[in-house]
Amino acid sequence: MKIDVLTLFPSMFEPVMSQSMMWKARDRGLLDFQAHDIRDYAVDKHRKVDDTPYGGGGGMVLKPDVLVRAIEAVKPEKQSPVILMSPQGRLLTHRVAVELSQHAHLILVCGHYEGVDERLRQIAITDEISIGDYVLTGGELAAMVLIDAVLRQIPGVLGAEGAQNRDSHADGLGGLLEGPHYTRPAEFRGLGVPAVLTSGHHAEVERWRRRQALKRTWQMRPDLLAGADLSDEDRAYLAGLIEEAGD
Ligand code: ADE
């Protein structure tokens, strides 16, 4: 996958994009990433990228001519999505990350200041994504969150093939949160490990994991249960939990 980011702060990306999974994806040739400085597309002698809003009011607005020039410079393919990172966009969810992972090329536009000139949306933006209902100072951190969530959906990026399918929210878990994990030591500050995990009984371990995922989702994000893919056994287990809590 190729990802081009348009930003006023390209140096924010390098520390993140050169670590961990992001770096592995690049090293394995699965990600071709570039951060482009929007200012390089300003043509006046002051390299001006923003201006005061028509109609008055505070803040500065990113100029449409500079941004359109930047987008056109990195967009050889007509079908590549051009995504504006913005608190007004559709929410980034697991489903959206999977959808975006299917594109060969993404262009991410990071806004700053009060916002972008509305004509940019009309001319060059094909999608608008928010990472949550809060306002960040700029789109850079949001773009990095999006890149992380999208990349882990690309086969070969995570070490263990299919590991992303066992993540919280993934289809393999039917839209549930993951249950708890344990590793050595077997006892830590007086706390042990559930016996089933050391029993060597694979089917029992799987059953326990499913129930823990159901329990955690019910405790932490009960709203997810409405859209989850549940078997009759899952429903019976949840009914038991609810009954127990009511006692
Ligand atoms: N830019 C500012 N706030 C944002 C948010 N919540 N999501 C994406 N981009 C943003």
Secondary-structure blueprint of this entry?
Blueprint: E1 2-7, H1 13-17, H2 20-27, E2 32-37, E3 50-51, E4 61-62, H3 64-74, E5 82-91, H4 94-101, E6 105-110, E7 115-116, H5 118-124, E8 127-130, H6 140-151, H7 202-220, H8 232-246
Parallel strand pairs: 1-2, 1-6, 4-7, 5-6, 5-8
Antiparallel strand pairs: 3-4
Helix pairs in contact: 3-5, 4-6, 7-8
The structure holds adenine.
Adenine binds near residues 86, 130, 131 and 135.
Structure description:
This protein is an alpha/beta fold and 247 residues long. Helices cover 34% and strands 15% of the residues. It is built from 8 helices and 8 strands; from the N terminus they run E-H-H-E-E-E-H-E-H-E-E-H-E-H-H-H. It has helices spanning 13-17, 20-27, 64-74, 94-101, 118-124, 140-151, 202-220, 232-246; strands spanning 2-7, 32-37, 50-51, 61-62, 82-91, 105-110, 115-116, 127-130. Strands 2-1-6-5-8 form a 5-stranded parallel β-sheet. Helix 3 (64-74) packs parallel to helix 5, helix 4 packs across helix 6 and helix 7 crosses helix 8 (232-246). The longest helix is centred in the C-terminal third of the chain and has 19 residues, at 202-220. It is elongated, with a radius of gyration of 23 Å. The N and C termini lie far apart (53 Å). Adenine binds at residues 85-87, 130-132, 134-136, 139, 142.
